[in-house]
Specification:
The complex is a heterotrimer.
Chain A lengths: L1 H17 L1 H22 L3 H34 L1 H6 L5 H16 L1 H11 L9 H25 L6 H28 L5 H29 L2
Chain B lengths: L1 E10 L2 E11 L4 E5 L6 H9 L6 E6 L2 E2 H4 L1 H4 L2 E4 L11 H11 L6 H10 L13 H9 L1 H4 L5 E5 L7 H16 L3 E6 L9 E4 L1
Parallel strand pairs in B: 3-8, 3-9, 6-7, 7-8
Antiparallel strand pairs in B: 1-2, 1-4, 4-5
Helix pairs in contact in B: 4-5
Chain C lengths: L1 H4 L3 H33 L13 H28 L2 H33 L8 H22 L3 H15 L2 H11 L19 H34 L1
The chains are: A mainly alpha, B alpha/beta, C mainly alpha.
Chain lengths: 222, 200, 232
């Protein structure tokens, strides 16, 4: 079971390394969106500081939605998805491995780069930790839950927008908690409550999302 | 033993076949014949568990495969239309991934041999291979999958040259001789000694 | 055993027709009674004056929006577990009505919020947000179903989505307890005595029954149309 999970992650990372443009697109999108807001809203420091957590989080969300389309589409097209469905390991484990690999490639870089982008918003340096932690807890949830949507919309027309509509209700609580944590911290109230809730969401997502994704993959493979 | 009972398949509003039943015992080879669109692929997908039939069931040693899930999948090798190889990976990497996912752990030696037997370059990314080589890279799994008793192959002889087709025939024959079961679909007679033929 | 007899779309069809008629009549009668109680009988509220009367639409609509989702998820789950066609059709039949009530709840809530809270909408309120999420869940369900060509796959994919979204319902219901934001606490609970005048409660309950009867009628009509469509 672990061997299957390892090989899936290994394969995903190999493909991502050899197809760097896909990876770069998600990261670049994140950078572009966060950089556009100060340009559009005007560089008044107080305003920027206030909107920083929300904007960075929304950008992370959008970037995740953008990269979700790739999660299973290529596998579905070249037949590797079928083999995973027919694999010896439980499909939930394989789905979790895919989500993990997706997070490593599309989520973790965001966590690393966010403090840098927060510079543009003149965010207090003391908040970088909370920002990074909220993203660290939240982006895996986005990958896991987004995987369900990606699996449901495999090969369906109108895929990208439909996928966004489907995952949006599930993403909003993560967004609220994530941005909320940083906002609370910036108001001096700590933000631990929101971070704990994010942690709980992560645990629930790890426990349930892979199985929902597996069920969705089976439905989409028919 | 793989058993199909009273299978009915409906796709796109049309009933492709109904009341289809047969048993595939160890050592038997089943040829599924029929014109394009007659349901050969659907039948194979029902047999491996990817597709749910609109009626009937498939049993593996008496148990419904829908309940067995991975238990059954461990005993099956399915080669579908799509070659199931990743363009960015080499032949060797693809084969290794496919094997581990199927629960097999062949040595590096065995994977190289399997690919060499089929004439597939081992270390070139699949993207750079021809269609025929890609097909053969997919079939290279046959050389290392002797542990899976049931082989389900969807039109394995398509786009193969004479040498590769011979090799495939040999491998299928060997598998049946070891006690495995083979079900494959094809348009025309593939030159195998089939125990049974189903016309769809 | 009678239940399985009705599990076939053809045998359910005439029953659905009868239920639709019964539901429609009941809805009409109950709505008249409920509105009479709500608009004319119930006393004026001490704090909010006449504006509060929108509660007789708002609260029953909100109740129905959650209730219908749970019923829809139930049929979805049944369809996934037993691979029955009619269950999937029932789920699809309920979705538009559920979305309608969710929209009505949000809309009447906004209209009520203006005179009482001073604003149509508050982004921070947990219950408002969860209700909006519920609306998106309904839309997502209908959109996913519409995008998949094969009816069986559409039913099953949408069913899975419905089940995943069911986690939202307890969040809406309990959000008022968990987050102390703008929405008032629960005034009607199963255990404690209601904190409002008896006539107001009666009015709300009658309207809730009216909406329930309407939902049954609408769902039955839709199921019949789905049965006709798929049999063709």
């Amino acid at each position: 079971m672990l061997a299957a999970a390892r090989i899936v992650v290994w394969r995903e990372l190999l493909v991502a390394m050899r197809r760097r443009s896909d990876v770069a697109t998600a990261l670049l999108f994140f950078v572009i969106v966060t950089s556009l807001f100060p340009l559009g809203i005007g560089a008044e420091p107080n305003k920027l500081r206030a909107i920083a957590p929300g904007v960075i989080w929304v950008a992370a969300l959008l970037s995740s939605m953008l990269s979700l389309g790739r999660l299973f589409a290529a596998d579905h097209a070249d037949g590797t998805l079928e083999q995973m469905v027919l694999g010896a390991a439980p499909l939930g484990v394989t789905a979790a491995a895919k989500a993990f690999a997706h997070w490593l490639v599309s989520g973790l870089p965001l966590v690393a780069i966010a403090p840098l982008l927060a510079l543009q918003y003149d965010l207090d340096a003391g908040l970088y930790g909370v920002l990074a932690l909220s993203l660290l807890l939240g982006t895996p949830v986005l990958s896991l839950v987004g995987g369900i949507g990606a699996a449901l919309t495999l090969g369906v027309r109108g895929g990208g927008v439909l996928l966004a509509l489907l995952v949006l209700p599930l993403y909003v609580p993560v967004l609220v908690m994530g941005a909320g944590a940083v906002e609370m911290a910036s108001a001096g109230l700590g933000g631990q409550g929101q971070l704990l809730i994010l942690g709980a969401m992560l645990i629930v997502a790890v426990a349930f999302a892979p199985w929902a994704t597996a069920a969705a993959l089976r439905i989409s493979s028919e | 033993m793989l058993e199909a009972r009273d299978l009915e398949c409906e796709r796109g509003g049309k009933v492709l076949f109904r009341h289809l039943g047969f048993a595939l015992s160890p050592g038997e080879t089943l040829r599924i014949a029929g014109a394009n669109g007659s349901g050969k692929t659907s039948l194979l997908r029902i047999l491996c568990g990817l597709l749910t039939p609109s009626a009937g069931e498939v049993l593996w040693n008496g148990a419904r495969i829908q309940s067995l899930k991975e238990e059954y999948a461990r005993h099956v090798l399915y080669v579908g239309h799509a070659p199931a190889v990743k363009d960015e990976l080499t032949g060797a990497e693809n084969l290794r991934a496919a094997c581990v996912l199927a629960g097999l752990s062949p040595s590096a030696e065995q994977t190289r041999d399997a690919l060499a037997r089929f004439g597939v370059p081992v270390d070139k990314p699949v993207r750079q291979l021809s269609q025929g080589q890609r097909r053969r890279a997919a079939l290279a799994r046959l050389s290392v999958s002797w542990k899976a008793p049931v082989w389900l192959l969807d039109e394995p002889f398509t786009a193969l040259d004479a040498a590769a087709a011979d090799l495939t025939r040999t491998l299928l024959g060997e598998h049946a001789q070891r006690g495995g079961s083979v079900a494959y679909s094809t348009h025309q007679d593939a030159g195998l000694r089939d125990s049974r033929v189903i016309e769809l | 055993m009678r239940w399985f007899w009705y599990a076939s779309p053809q045998t359910f069809y005439p029953l659905a027709g009868k239920l639709a008629v019964a539901g429609g009549l009941a809805a009409a009668v109950l709505a008249v009674v409920g509105l009479y109680v709500g608009l004319l009988v119930a006393p004026t509220d001490a704090q909010q004056g006449e504006a509060y009367r929108i509660i007789f639409i708002h609260v029953p609509a909100a109740w129905m929006s959650m209730f219908i989702y749970v019923v829809m998820a139930f049929w979805a789950g049944l369809g996934l577990a037993f691979n029955t066609r009619l269950s999937g059709m029932m789920a699809s039949a309920l979705a538009p009505t559920g979305a309608l009530f969710t929209f009505i709840a949000l809309w009447t809530g906004a209209l009520w919020g203006r005179p009482t809270w001073g604003t149509y909408w508050v982004w921070g309120d947990a219950r408002l947000m969860s209700e909006l999420i519920l609306l998106f869940l309904y839309f997502g369900f209908m959109a996913l179903h519409a995008s998949i060509e094969d009816p069986r796959r559409a039913d099953r994919a949408a069913a899975l989505l419905a089940l995943v979204g069911v986690v939202n319902i307890p969040i809406i219901y309990y959000s008022v307890k968990w987050w102390n934001t703008l929405h008032q606490g629960a005034s009607v609970s199963m255990t404690a005595a209601p904190k409002m005048a008896a006539t107001m409660l009666v009015g709300m309950l009658v309207m809730a029954l009216a909406f329930w009867a309407y939902s049954i009628a609408a769902a039955m009509l839709r199921v019949r149309s789905l049965i006709r469509e798929r049999a063709a």
